[in-house]
Design a protein that fits this description.
45% of the residues are buried. Helix 2 crosses helix 10 and helix 3 runs parallel beside helix 4. It contains ten helices and twelve strands. 50% of the residues lie in helices and 20% in strands. Helix 2 links the parallel strand 1 and strand 2. It is elongated, with a radius of gyration of 31 Å. The N and C termini lie far apart (100 Å). It folds into two domains: 125 residues, Response regulator (Rossmann fold, 3-Layer(aba) Sandwich); 142 residues, Response regulator (Rossmann fold). The protein is of the alpha/beta class.
Length: 330
Amino acid sequence: MKMNLKKMMLLVLMLVLALMTACSGASESTSEGSSNSGSSDSGDSKDEKLTIALSVGTLANPFFVAMGKGAEEAGKELGAEVLVESAEYDLAKQTSQIEIFITKKVDVILLNAVDTEGIAAAVQQAKDAGIPVIAVDVNAEGGVDATVTSDNYQAGQLAGEYVIEQLGGKGNIAIIDGPPVSAVADRIQGFEDAIKKSDIKVVAKQNGEGSREKALTVMESILQANPSGSIDAVFAINDPEAIGVEIAQEQAGRKDEFFIVGVDGAPEATEAMSKEGSSIHATSAQSPSDMVKKAVEIGLKVKDGEEVEELIKVPVELVTQETLDSYKGW
């Protein structure tokens, strides 16, 4: 009897030990599961952080600096990482930037193309990788999902109408052209359409490549080829060019001969316009920050599978020396 009692107690003890071991294992398993779940959630959270990439013509232009700041502001609101690159108007460099964006698996590419047609292959690569591409300020070939731009035709048209008004419908002018992109082509078209029914004659048209330095150089050549008193106005496709034209004018001693109209509404241009005796009389003002923020919005809609308009135009306004005080600027 005593022997049976001892056996029974031994069996009970073994059963208790077995139950304790099982509970301990279950607890560890649960603990590991919770730990792994937390780690997985952390990784998913990290993976879900958006990356927005922007490539612009050149950050030497305040317009694109403002665009970059606008993208960063939009990214901050979204909790996204923002990459801003300057292509320096170099097609090969911009192509390389897009390839790097693809390698980094960014969520959206915002593209200010340096060459509307030349960038097509890079755009197609991004599209093949499943990355939405939104053209900003200028169009881009290759199948972009949408283009967000200022109404560049309107910018040129407003400038042309201003020149007609100031010259009374007749006179000689020069045009400083720019890079081979849609925005520039549209500005030139708008300007030329505005003046074509007037008696205004274009006596010179050269490419200032969108920069102050190049515009200064080509304007020097224009002034050398056209004697004093033969030019009444100059239309420049952006404000850096307008500044370059004014510098060339001053250096040639022909300050009071003609006035200048630009495009952008850039701080450096409005600052110049505010000075007494400035030859820059007007600029068709854009809003680069609003433009790129709209592009971010459109890009995220495309990423989420929503349908969007192919072309979104942001209106511009003509700012003159007389209306400068009411202009909010960038």
